[in-house]
Design brief:
Order of helices and strands of chain A: EHHEEEEEHEHHEEEEEEE
Largest interface: A-B, 116 and 116 residues
Radius of gyration of chain A: 19 Å
Strand content of chain A: 35-45%
Strand order of the largest sheet of chain A: 4-3-7-10-11-6-5
Number of strands of chain A: 14
Largest sheet of chain A: 7 strands, antiparallel
Oligomer: homodimer
C-alpha cells in the first residue's frame, strides 16, 4: 500500500475545499444526528450534526461542537434561549431528509416542514423530537465552553429523556445500534451502514480477550 | 417497533454498569483510535479512545475528551509534558491488539510491547506512530479545557503530519475510510465495519440532492 505524507505546510497550501474534506474525513467515522429545537416564538428548527462527543455517563452528558457565530446559528441560539433540545438518530429511510437539514433556511420557517420530517412532542418535553427517528434523546443545556483555538463552542447537555426500540436494548444496557438502523458518517457528506464484528471483553493485563454475544 | 422510554429518574436508579453501557451507546457510532505518546524518560504509551471530535479544518484541529484525574492518565500526562502525540486508525487485523490498549499497564512498561504493536518514528516527529495503522496523524497540543459539569478535560491538538494510503484519497480531499479499512465502534466494546451508502451533494433550499461518486 503506497502511503502519502502531508504536513502543516501542505495544509496551509491546499485549496480550501480540499482541506475541508481532508481534515473532516481524517478523524474517522462519526456519529451523525439531527438536533431539533423550538425558538421562544414557537418556530421549530432542525439541523444535522456530526460533531457529537460522549462526555460522561453519571450524570449522563453529551457534547456538541458549534462553529463560530456570527453568522447566527439557529440551533445554538435556541439552545441558549430555551435550554431544551433533542438529538435524533438517522436511518436510511430518512437519510435524504436528514441531509437536507444542513441547508440554510430562513429562520422564520419550520425546517421540519421544509425537509419533510414530523415534529413529535412527547411527555411535556418542550423541544420537538423527530417522529421518524428510532432513537430520540431529550437534553437540557448545562454548560457552554468557548474554545479559544478557533472560536468554536462546546455545548454540554444532560440527557433527560430517551426513547429507543425495545429490541435494540441488550441486558447489560448496551444498545445494538444496528437493530435501530442507526447510520454513521464520514467527512462532510458520506453516509454508511455498519456490520458488527464483535463486542470484546473488558481488557486487563495478562488476560486473553474474549468475544461477547 | 415497540419503544422504550427512560428519564432522569431511571438513569439515577440504573445499576452502574447498565447505565455506563446505555449512555455510551446512545450517542451513535464513534471514531475509535489509538493515541500514542512518549514520556520525558522515553517510555512509550498507547491507549484506545472513542471520544474524538472534529474541531476545525483551518487550522486543522482535533479534540479528545479525557476522564478526570486522579488517577493519573498516562496519555494525558505525556501530552501535557511533551506536547506531541499521535492518533492512529484501527483496522480489523489489529483489532484485538488495539482493544487490549485499554488495559491498565504499569507506567514503566512499553505498552506497544505488551499489546504487540510496533512504534514507528517518522520524519523527526517526537511521538511514536503505530506502524500497523493505515492512517496516522501527528499532533501538537495547543489547548486544555476543563469541563466543569463532570471534571472531564478536552484536549485540542493541531494536526502536524498525516500519513494515509494513496488509494484512499479522492480528488476533492475526501478520504475513503473504507479503502483504508478504518473501523468504527459503539458503546464501550463493540466494533463495526462499514458499508458506504452514498456521498450526497451540498444541501441548499429548493435544490434536489444528488449522489456524488
Amino acid at each position: 500500500m503506497t502511503s502519502l505524507h502531508f504536513n502543516s505546510v501542505d495544509f496551509k497550501n491546499f485549496d480550501k475545499n480540499f482541506r475541508v474534506h481532508l481534515i473532516n474525513s481524517l478523524g474517522g467515522f462519526k456519529s451523525v444526528v439531527m438536533v431539533a429545537t423550538k425558538n421562544p416564538n414557537g418556530i421549530e428548527n432542525i439541523g444535522i450534526f456530526s460533531s457529537l462527543v460522549h462526555i460522561g455517563a453519571n450524570p449522563p452528558l453529551i457534547g456538541l461542537i458549534f462553529r463560530p457565530s456570527p453568522p447566527i446559528r439557529d440551533t445554538f441560539k435556541n439552545i441558549i434561549e430555551t435550554s431544551y433540545y433533542t438529538i435524533n438518530h438517522i436511518h436510511k429511510d430518512i437519510l435524504l431528509k436528514a441531509h437536507q437539514c444542513s441547508a440554510k433556511y430562513d429562520e422564520n420557517v419550520s425546517e421540519f416542514k421544509e425537509v419533510g420530517l414530523t415534529p413529535n412532542y412527547l411527555n411535556d418535553f418542550s423541544a420537538p423530537f423527530v417522529k421518524e427517528s428510532h432513537i430520540k434523546i431529550g437534553l437540557k443545556f448545562i454548560e457552554k465552553i468557548d474554545i479559544l483555538s478557533n472560536r468554536t463552542i462546546l455545548i454540554i447537555g444532560e440527557i433527560q429523556e430517551v426513547y429507543l426500540p425495545e429490541n435494540a436494548l441488550q441486558k447489560d444496557g448496551f444498545i445494538d445500534l444496528e437493530q435501530a438502523k442507526t447510520l454513521t458518517c464520514s467527512g462532510l457528506d458520506s453516509y454508511h451502514e455498519t456490520q458488527k464484528i464483535n463486542r470484546l471483553s473488558y481488557a486487563k493485563p495478562d488476560k486473553t480477550l474474549i468475544f461477547i454475544d
